[in-house]
User: Fold this.
Amino acid sequence: MSETINNISVPTVTVIGGGLAGSEAAWQLASQGINVDLFEMRPTVETGAHQTSNLGELVCSNSLGSDLPDRASGVLKAELRQLGSMLMDCADQTSVPAGGALAVDREQFSKLITQRICSQPHIRLIREEITEIPDGPTIIASGPLTSTSLAESIGKISGEDHLYFFDAISPIVSQESINMEIAFRGSRYGKGELDVGDYINCPMDKDQYEHFVCNLISADRIELHSFEEAIKSGVKAGAHQFFEGCLPIEIMADRGIDSLAYGPMRPVGLTDPRTNQRSHAVVQLRQDNIAGTLYNIVGFQTNLKFAEQKRVFQLIPGLNKAEFVRFGQMHRNTFISAPTLLHPTMQFRQREDLFFAGQITGVESYVGNVATGLLAGYNMARLLTGRKLMILPVTTILGALCHYVTHASLADFQPMKANFGLLPPLQIETKTKGRRMRKRQRAQAHSQRALADLTAYLASFS
Assistant:
């Protein structure tokens, strides 16, 4: 079935994957009057990590990262809002307190996305697994949990090996089971809601911390053989790895007794109101739903056996009687060799009507997935209606991110999240009174340039 747009017959677009990238891509296409068949294999085929059949379900965390204007993640969100992202609007509507970050009630967030997709007359949601890449205009946004059969089909058309890494998700506990006589509310450096703070903090002294770390390191872990069997053949030797940005807590602990105290358990910016001092280490919990009844343990992605998670994590002061609503677990993530396969438009180099979007392209973070889905949807619509495709300025976060994943060296290519290091140098004076510009000043200058350049680009682009 096709639509006639500006006297051009436009065919139906197939979007594979109803996650963040696929939902955004489908919405952008439909918003321009283009019919979309959105395929989502859940609940017919389970992934091993998702809990529901809702579209856009968040698996690892409920946080979309910083929303501050001088943080790269915050700038990317501002760009997406300027570009009309549907998922960013859903996130804003279902947000929960998280200091300077944007976190959501993950259930309400995915429900709202699903409602909007299902109510869009140009989108047909089909609950089936796609095992072969179809002919005709297609966007592959199957995510890091791409099924084995589709991954094999992608391998055939790309002629490239796939890269794999293991990812892990954090446990969630009930708020009422947290001992607030030990734990306290507060955000780092006082950011967040006044007088309350957006996080629950479990303080540790040196002896408690070292006892916890020793138990964590020696705890029983789930063997990776089951994941390797799921991948089966076709994986390069040495490709099984953890993504550095999402290491399991026990792997971080293996690096040294103090690694967690300088990592996810760093106590900086937090003062225990009972002692009026900074603790040796702090475990933070972030609100996971709007009702405030569920909290996830920040940075505690893990591959420990479930019984060991309960035993070890209940050693944390304030969590000695914690009720675990969901245990952490490991899952396989897949991404393609984007530098050899994709243009910065997210278009497949060997087939102009095939686009990729989301984490499978090598972008990292929820917002990066949304952003590449938006760009793929934009550009597919432009391709089908005979218009020039968008390549955003590399001075914008989204433009720089797409440029990185399509131009990086394969020798050290890993998933990349938004960061100012991807941007070209600022063309401004970098010294003031003989001193270099401060980090925050540079960040603010990058932010201002990114949003100004995006505005100018969109105004000049037809």
